[in-house]
């Protein structure tokens, strides 16, 4: 039995029945990682003994409470004894958090992110820290100081980004589920390219405390899993108000599994024509249209609609996100923590050389774009105008959700492209997030689920979008469509090579 490919919810049931141990699960995940890390480069940090010790501690806890009706302090949790891997921009106490950047290559946080604290309270098993685009800036996971991540379906292709490591690790069976972050599609796009489920929650539903900031008004932590049920469980484990995050929402729900039922009869689905237009490959459109026909056969009402402001979403994003990045990344100056050029002869030269050597090309590009947009004489023309157009995008979504329950679109305009194919064409690379960016600008929840494989056996994803705090509709729709699509392919060929 390949425990490393079983869903987390099934592993939980087997653990409770004492059919397996957490150490059994950890051991199989370890074997898979040791076998495939060289092929995929999914992890930045991986400590075998640390993982096994956590698994043994979880087994001791489960032994104490299982089968006992005297559970004074004991409680079953969805992730007790379950390995979860974490994107390397989420702080873990006493474990390096590098953001895949040279400038933070030796940074060890003195605290845990709130999402880590919440998983620790469930006695989860941290399997390691996952590779990513540097500071979450990228759509291919080629911008890492630790080398690119490879797609498990075809190791000559990208896994998507910036959460390429989390998506590849889950798809390849290195870990049952992982946490990523999504600023413009960085969970949903790699989930689409790797054939897994990726959820971007409502902005503020999951605390950002301990997430190293890229663009603070857009960033959001979310789960990457192999199925919708695990996504609902993992969101339930990490969501909720946090006093340490000023943008945290004191609302929402805490048990999203109650919405996992197969019934979308009467559901009103809108299909934004702007997200099904010229930039989307024909195979992607065909796959999404197939899902829409399935939805209609299940009793849903499907209509094409228009959100005209989406035409400007990409331009707005690449003003707002770099501007916020320029501000957020100014703290990495070689003085307080992180990399420092120690050969500099003056404070000014130390600043310049530290940042020149510590940041990669894409991060430098976005810092320069953002600094320009915020500079005197250009702020009104760029940043302020972008925020005004952002409001138009939000209003278009509001109008759409006055008529429809959910919107459905492609998650990515293409399947996984070859490593290096777009490296010299930043604009083409930025277009990879054209379907996902509007959601972040409006702070809405959205999920990507697999809709099938292309002719050359590469995964395709479909995106489901709902209104603010309507994760209930996201999960209801995603669960029903997941069952109807019945995507059960795995990149098992990796283990046969």
Detail the topology: elements first, then pairings.
Elements: H1 8-16, H2 22-40, E1 43-45, H3 48-65, E2 83-87, H4 114-121, E3 125-130, H5 164-171, E4 177-181, H6 188-194, E5 197-200, E6 221-225, H7 228-238, E7 268-272, H8 282-297, E8 301-305, H9 313-328, H10 347-358, H11 361-374, H12 380-401, E9 406-410, H13 426-430, H14 437-442, E10 446-453, E11 459-465, H15 471-485, H16 493-496
Parallel strand pairs: 2-3, 2-4, 7-8, 7-9
Antiparallel strand pairs: 1-3, 4-6, 5-6, 5-10, 9-11, 10-11
Helix pairs in contact: 2-3, 5-6, 9-11, 9-12
Q: SSE order, as H and E? A: HHEHEHEHEHEEHEHEHHHHEHHEEHH
Radius of gyration: 22 Å
- The CATH class name of the largest domain reads Alpha Beta
**Low-confidence parts:** 68-72
For the largest sheet, list the strands in their spatial order: 1-3-2-4-6-5-10-11-9-7-8
- Helix amount: 25-40%
Let me know the largest β-sheet: 11 strands, mixed
> What multimeric state do the chains show?
single chain
What is the total number of structural domains? 2
Distance between the termini: 19 Å
What gross morphology would you assign?
globular
Question: What is the name of the CATH topology of the largest domain?
Answer: Amidase signature (AS) enzymes
How many beta-strand segments?
11
Label the CATH architecture of the largest domain.
Answer: Alpha-Beta Complex
């Amino acid at each position: 039995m390949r425990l490393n490919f079983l869903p987390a919810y099934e592993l939980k049931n087997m653990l409770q029945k004492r059919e397996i141990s957490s150490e059994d699960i950890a051991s199989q995940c370890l074997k898979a990682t040791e076998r495939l890390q060289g092929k995929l480069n999914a992890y930045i940090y991986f400590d075998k003994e640390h993982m096994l010790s956590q698994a043994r501690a979880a087994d001791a806890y489960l032994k104490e409470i299982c089968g006992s009706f005297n559970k004074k302090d004991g409680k079953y949790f969805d992730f007790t004894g379950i390995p979860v891997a974490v994107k390397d921009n989420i702080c873990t106490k006493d474990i390096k958090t590098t953001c895949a950047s040279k400038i933070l290559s030796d940074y060890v946080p003195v605290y845990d992110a709130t999402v880590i604290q919440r998983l620790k309270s469930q006695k989860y098993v941290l399997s390691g820290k996952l590779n990513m685009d540097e500071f979450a800036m990228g759509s291919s996971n080629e911008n890492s100081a630790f080398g690119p991540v490879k797609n498990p379906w075809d190791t000559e292709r990208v896994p998507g980004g910036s959460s390429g490591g989390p998506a590849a690790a889950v798809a390849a069976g290195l870990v049952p589920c992982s946490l990523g972050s999504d600023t413009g599609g960085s969970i949903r796009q790699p989930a689409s390219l790797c054939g897994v489920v990726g959820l971007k929650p409502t902005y503020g539903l999951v605390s950002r405390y301990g997430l190293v900031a890229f663009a603070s008004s857009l960033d959001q932590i979310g789960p990457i899993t192999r199925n919708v049920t695990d996504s609902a469980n993992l969101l339930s484990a990490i969501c909720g108000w946090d006093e340490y995050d000023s943008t945290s929402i004191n609302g929402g729900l805490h048990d999203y599994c109650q919405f996992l039922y197969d019934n979308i009869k009467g559901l009103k689905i809108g299909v934004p024509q702007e997200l099904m237009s010229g930039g989307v490959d024909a195979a992607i459109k065909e796959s999404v249209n197939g899902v829409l026909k399935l939805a209609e056969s299940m009793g849903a009402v499907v209509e094409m609609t228009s959100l005209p402001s989406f035409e400007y979403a990409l331009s707005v994003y690449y003003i707002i996100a770099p501007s916020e990045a320029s501000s957020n990344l100014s703290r990495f100056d070689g003085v307080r923590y992180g990399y420092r050029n120690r050969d500099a002869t003056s404070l000014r030269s130390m600043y310049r050389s530290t940042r020149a050597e510590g940041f990669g090309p894409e991060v430098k590009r976005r810092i320069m774009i953002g600094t320009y947009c915020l500079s005197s004489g250009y702020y009104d023309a760029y940043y302020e105008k972008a925020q005004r157009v952002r409001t138009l995008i939000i209003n278009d979504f509001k109008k759409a959700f006055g008529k429809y329950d959910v919107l459905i679109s492609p998650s990515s305009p293409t399947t996984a492209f070859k490593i290096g194919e777009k490296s010299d064409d930043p604009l083409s690379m930025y277009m990879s997030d054209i379907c996902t960016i509007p959601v972040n600008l409006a702070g809405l929840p959205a999920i990507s689920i697999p809709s099938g494989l292309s002719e050359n056996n590469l995964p395709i994803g479909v995106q489901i979008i709902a209104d603010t705090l309507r994760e209930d509709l996201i999960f209801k729709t995603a669960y029903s469509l997941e069952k109807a699509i019945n995507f059960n392919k795995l990149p098992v060929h990796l283990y046969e090579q």
